[in-house]
Design goal:
16 helices, binds flavin mononucleotide
């Protein structure tokens, strides 16, 4: 099985130079389209699963009624149509967040709108929520078999004025909520003019209260618990703004936060490579980690945190969990590292837990805050890890 996975990895490393010659968006559609077509062949799902899935009781957890086989998820933006969920479910992810979806179909910004910065393993995008609209997405995804937890990420339609944002989000929620295991409200994309203004405390409160009311009403009609609700925030908030929104999330009893979206801070991008849009990948790592750390301390365990931004290695994943994230996501690293990444991260987390006597993932989540001394001793790249490497 390890050999199969290795084969998949080497195939990607062979394909990557060709793909990287192409326009990034074309390359994305070519590779995901081909894989999705392959995945529809009878029996292929089981073969792909055998190659990419990690099974370990240490990685399993139940959160807000959802069962996660592992903590590694695909971030929003990769599955913008909703069509890739069945494939990603077999590629070793513990969950998938599809979207962003808007109430109205929209083409997004003109191309080119996605750019690679290979030297920094980064991406810059200004896609602008290109999607088929909530009604068409519903028709597509209602036919899909649910395998792993699926979040549906909702944003504001570009043509809806900010004053009508609540009605616009509620319109897509009405069409999609029953197809989701959790709902993610995106108020942090930098590519829809004005969207980030919805992160202002009062505006966000009004929006979230309306969404919670609608989710509760749906739950009442279906005699089910309300769908879990998460909000995705930007890394460019000041620490004071982040603290305020963490407090709001606690006050409204949201299920959690997704930290973070792409950044508008391009200070470490070479001027000749710079272009307008949200930056993702390793350059975002430190701030996204800091946001999780801060939100974890401030919320004192009352929110579930999904850590996203620059996660590329198993050490990054372990560090993000220890900082307080219960779940992880990535997008950019998948483009640079290929389809073996979920498995590599999951195996790395699992081995780390085994080596350090951590029985279940909750023993690792927030360890940095619960037992800082122990964390300093065992953290990857820390003193003890260095000693182990020296003696290996
Ligand atoms: C091409 C691209 C498109 C994205 N589209 C969305 C989106 O539609 N909705 C959203 O919430 N985040 C979107 N994101 C942000 C990612 O979900 C993630 O928050 C961000 O890229 C940081 O993670 P990473 O460094 O692992 O890529 C997008 C990112 C990229 C690179």
């Amino acid at each position: 099985m390890a050999n199969c996975s290795l084969a998949g990895f080497f195939m990607y490393s062979l394909l990557k130079p060709l793909l990287f010659q192409m326009d990034p968006e074309r390359a994305h559609h070519l590779i995901t389209g081909s894989l999705a077509a392959l995945h529809r062949l009878p029996g292929s799902g089981a073969l792909i699963r055998a190659q990419y899935k990690t099974t370990s009781p240490r990685l399993r957890q139940q959160l807000c009624g959802m069962q996660f086989d592992n903590p590694v998820g695909m971030a929003a933006g990769f599955d913008k149509s909703g069509a890739l969920y069945p494939l990603l479910g077999d590629l070793g992810f513990g969950f998938v967040e599809s979207g962003t979806f808007t109430a109205l179909a929209q083409p997004g910004n003109p191309r080119p709108r996605l750019f690679r910065l290979p030297a920094q393993k980064a991406l810059i995008n200004r896609m602008g929520f290109n999607n088929a609209g909530a009604a068409a997405v519903r028709r597509l995804i209602r036919r899909q078999k649910r395998t792993i937890p699926r979040g549906l990420n909702l944003g504001k339609s570009k043509v809806a004025p900010l004053e009508d944002a609540v009605a616009d989000y509620c319109a897509s929620l009405a069409l999609l909520a029953d197809q989701a295991d959790y709902i993610a409200i995106n108020v942090s994309s930098p590519n829809t003019p004005g969207l980030r203004q919805l992160q202002a405390g009062s505006a966000l409160k009004e929006l979230l209260v309306a969404i919670q009311d609608q989710l509760r009403e749906l739950a009442r009609k279906q005699s089910e618990p309300a769908r879990p609700l998460f909000v995705k925030l930007a890394p460019d908030l000041s620490n004071a703004e982040l603290d305020e929104l963490v407090d709001l999330a606690v006050q409204l009893q949201l299920d959690g936060l997704i930290l973070t979206n792409t950044t508008l801070d391009h200070s470490r991008v070479a001027p000749e490579r710079d272009t307008q849009g949200g930056l993702s990948g390793p350059l975002l790592h430190n701030r996204a980690l800091e946001c999780v750390r801060r939100a974890s301390v401030r919320s004192a365990g009352r929110l579930i945190l999904i850590g996203v931004g620059g996660i590329t290695t198993a050490a990054d994943a372990i560090e993000r969990l220890a900082a307080g994230a219960s779940l992880l996501q990535f997008y950019t690293a998948y483009i640079y590292e290929g389809p073996g990444l979920p498995r590599r991260l999951n195996r790395g987390i699992d081995q780390f837990m085994q080596q350090n006597g951590l029985q279940q993932i909750s023993d690792l989540i927030g360890l940095e805050h619960r037992d800082p001394q122990r964390w300093q001793l065992i953290r990857p790249g820390g003193e003890a890890a260095g000693l182990i490497q020296q003696h290996a």
